[in-house]
Amino acid sequence: MEELNRTLFLWINATPQSAAWLLELATFIAKDLIAIVPLLIAVLWLWGPHRGIRTLVLKTGIALLYALAISWCVGQLFPHPRPFAIGLGHQFLSHAPDDSYPSDHGTTIFTFALAFIFWHRIWSGIVLMAIGLAIAWSRIYLGVHWPMDMLGGLLVGLLGCLFSQMAWPWYGEPLMKLLHQIYRLLFSLPIRKGWVRN
């Protein structure tokens, strides 16, 4: 498996001969495209087409918390150096030489993609999955992650969604009610003005 991981990495990883425009595009995708996650959370909560969409936002947020917790535990149990930390391939994105498995970026975006597939619409999940694959490619291409780091992020995201779905009947509705109360208190003026949804 490790040999396959290295072979795939070297096949995807950029080289000094790679086109400058492609390196710039990969850098944008690797660093900035993940911002779609908090942006999506805010937009759907504040201006979602119906109040039920907030259930999706909350379940997805909980899934992400589970996924990141699992990711941290896996990283502690199975530490794995980044490619540049062992001198393999070429690095085009500055990054601390910490453990790489599973990828936090991969875990985050794949958790969201899977959540939207399971709890929203297939098409929205597929769009997010495509973004996730682009982020995964870019971080491998720039030399800061292994392919298996991204596969690990996908699997951890799947577990996060599973745990969120299983735990929702226990605390989902009370938590949603509490968050609505806090939201209405903090956003009372924008709600009255009609700037955001009630």
Automatic annotation (TrEMBL):
<dbReference type="InterPro" id="IPR033879">
    <property type="entry name" value="UPP_Pase"/>
</dbReference>
<dbReference type="InterPro" id="IPR036938">
    <property type="entry name" value="PAP2/HPO_sf"/>
</dbReference>
<keyword id="KW-0812">Transmembrane</keyword>
<dbReference type="GO" id="GO:0005886">
    <property type="term" value="C:plasma membrane"/>
</dbReference>
<feature type="transmembrane region" description="Helical">
    <location>
        <begin position="56"/>
        <end position="78"/>
    </location>
</feature>
<keyword id="KW-0472">Membrane</keyword>
<dbReference type="Pfam" id="PF01569">
    <property type="entry name" value="PAP2"/>
</dbReference>
<feature type="transmembrane region" description="Helical">
    <location>
        <begin position="150"/>
        <end position="171"/>
    </location>
</feature>
<protein>
    <recommendedName>
        <fullName>undecaprenyl-diphosphate phosphatase</fullName>
        <ecNumber>3.6.1.27</ecNumber>
    </recommendedName>
</protein>
<dbReference type="InterPro" id="IPR000326">
    <property type="entry name" value="PAP2/HPO"/>
</dbReference>
<feature type="domain" description="Phosphatidic acid phosphatase type 2/haloperoxidase">
    <location>
        <begin position="60"/>
        <end position="165"/>
    </location>
</feature>
<feature type="transmembrane region" description="Helical">
    <location>
        <begin position="20"/>
        <end position="47"/>
    </location>
</feature>
<feature type="transmembrane region" description="Helical">
    <location>
        <begin position="109"/>
        <end position="138"/>
    </location>
</feature>
<dbReference type="GO" id="GO:0050380">
    <property type="term" value="F:undecaprenyl-diphosphatase activity"/>
</dbReference>
<keyword id="KW-1133">Transmembrane helix</keyword>
